[in-house]
User: Fold Putative alkylphosphonate utilization operon protein PhnA from Shimia thalassica.
Amino acid sequence: MSQSCALCGAKTETAAFVVAPKADEVQLCQTCLAGVTGKPEDAPHWQCLHEAIWSTEPPLQVLAFRVLNGLTSAPWARDILDIAYLEPEVKDWAEAGMADPDAPEHRDSNGVLLAAGDSVVLIKDLPVKGAGFTAKRGTPVRNISLVQDNAEHIEGRVESQRIVILTKFVKKT
Assistant:
């Protein structure tokens, strides 16, 4: 029997998926199920996340947040994450299901653990290569992204430019 996928809305065969660590269950099509359980690849199918991240249903927000974080190499996905807002308990739920024991720990200049979405302040003037400006000390960088394969790098927007910043030059706010 065909149902609508809770994430993308496709009317096709669906399977039940439990949004861990809670017991909430949603119906997902095979494409969405593969993206939620594995490493999603940038494809037109994921444009449904533009709407899903703003859903009034917390399980859909959680799944959209997780898939968007898996698509951070896609500029459109990073842009959605930059503007998305999740209630603190929903964001905690989303991040709890994403924990990777092999992921590097990102720490600021004081040794404080950084997480995706945190706000930091630059502690040194930094020349931005290729952009032609210097990011000044004291500049706030909100809603940072973590570079998954390098514990010394984070990404954030400074003067409307998305740049990579070394963690030793930031302080968590």
In short: Residues 1 and 122 are 55 Å apart (CA to CA).
